[in-house]
Amino acid sequence: MNDYNRPDKLREECGVFGIYSNNCHDVASMSYYALYALQHRGQESCGIAVNTEGDIVHHKAMGLVPEVFSEKILDGLQGSSAVGHVRYSTTGASLLANAQPLVVKYKDGKMALAHNGNLVNASEIREKLEENGAIFQSTIDSEIMAYLISRYRGHNNSIEEAIFEMMKEVKGSYALVVLTPKKLLGIRDPFGIRPLCIGMLGDSYVLASETCALDAIGANFIRDVEPGEIVAISDEGLSSIKTNLENESKLCIFEHIYFARPDSYIDGASVYRARFEAGRLLAIENPVEADLVIGVPDSGITAALGYSEQSGIPYAQGFIKNRYVGRTFIQPDQGKREMSVRIKLNAMRNAIEGKRVIMVDDSIVRGTTSKRIVQLLRDAGATEVHLKISSPPVKWPCYFGIDTPSRKHLTAACHTVDEIKKMIGADSLSYLSIEGLISTPVGSKCGFCKACFDGDYPMQVPGEGNKFSCDGSQKE
Questions:
Q1: Which of 239, 222, 219, 221 is nearest to 25 (CA)?
Q2: Burial of 324: CB neighbours in 10 Å, binned 0-12, 13-18, 19+
Q3: Tens of pLDDT along 274-333?
Q4: By the 8 A CB rule, do 113 and 142 touch?
Q5: What is the spatial distance between Cα 364 and Cα 462, in angstroms, rounded to a whole number?
Q6: Is residue 310 within a helix (H) or strand (E), and if so which, with residue range?
Q7: Contact 364, 341 (CB under 8 A)
């Protein structure tokens, strides 16, 4: 089952990539393969912009990377540097006008910008700019950042200074790659909420949301961009500007729980190991007698392996995932939703029948899909189903680039664990503790934002202290 078709899952943000070539790499093809590796971060639209002879040309469209880019299109994107983007909309509708990279012309030149994240003061800034005559072509906050950089560029000596001025004005999360006719720049927000790393391919520098994109093109990892840092890459090499804006780092913990690919490393920690450790600690905190452990594909499998190893209960493949159900799968009407789950995912009766089953998944948002998957196991003959979640209960919305519903749609915000257990039909339900979760990214060099679990946001957010309650009314 494609996680993108699971309504009970948090949605990915976006993925960004950039390359500055010093030895004539085919930058469009390199961007294509890197974006393919980042496809899990966004499946609505994608695009590549290339610097060619002082101009910036681009192609972007709705759809997956292999759907949008043909060999002919890539052949038409020849140049010395490039930026790319895969998108899932968190701010702005799913429209071609909102696809990235954004390519803008301004008084002092041209630039392309690709953004992963979300600004919490975007509406406020946009309103002020529009009152002063600004015209926007899209509904995304990324265009606000591009507009501010363009405006500040006219009053500063360099693009780096213009970016710094923009950073002082915006609030929220962002991992940016910016392409100009002479430079490639990478920028990370002062809290480091969204990931961004630096690699090298021969003598060429690359920037990417995850290290799996570096692996895809044979690049070597150098380091992560630090919170509040601007890195500029040109013919003179790489330079770093440490702004005075950096704060205590607050990487989104869901990168390790769900969003990032298991083969990636983020801020010093292996995503695979973090998920394995989450499963292992889950077994320590929440033991139960059972015959086998299974993981919900794909995100729950690694944690299930950790649970199995720690508990000594055998791991088994509990589900078969239909890998031919893509993003265009037609959702049936309400009366056929059970069939839609069975088309995407089917239980392995031979492994499950007559067994007490521990099912490991990464999170519960609404609980609807969990209920259907538990029923699949019942129908396949499981005598008991114990649901173990490798993260704490999700109780608060995210404002930093993850598509989470309001509190009234977050099951854990409105119901106790026992109530959720009864709703989904499991024999038992337990979550990993916050303390356990934070310890799982072994070797991490950063702190974490865990506001979706405890409501402790790293900055003031819209509606903080005035959240929607479970009945839809507003709390004082």
A1: 219
A2: exposed
A3: 999 999 999 999 999 999 999 999 889 999 999 999 999 999 999 998 876 554 344 444
A4: yes
A5: 24
A6: helix 301-311
A7: no
Return d(Cα 279, Cα 286) in angstroms, integer: 10
* Catalytic machinery residues: 14
Instruction: With H, G, I as helix, E, B as strand and everything else as coil, classify residue 375.
Output: helix
Length of the chain as a residue count:
476
Are 392 and 437 within 8 A, CB to CB?
Answer: yes
State pTM to two decimals: 0.90
**Sign of the dihedral defined by the CA atoms of residues 452, 457, 458, 460, in that order:** positive
Tokens of 465: 């202290």
Within 49-202, where are the H helices? 65-68, 71-75, 122-131, 141-153, 159-169
Calculate the alpha carbon distances from 443 to 84, 108, 112, 246, 332 in Å. Answer: 29, 44, 34, 21, 45
- Which phi and psi angles does 213 have, rounded to 5°? -70, -35
**Residue 27, CB half-sphere, CA atoms under 13 Å: how many?**
30
Does residue 114 sit in helix, strand or coil?
strand
In 3D space, the residue among 36, 49, 40 whose CA is nearest the CA of residue 12 turns out to be 40
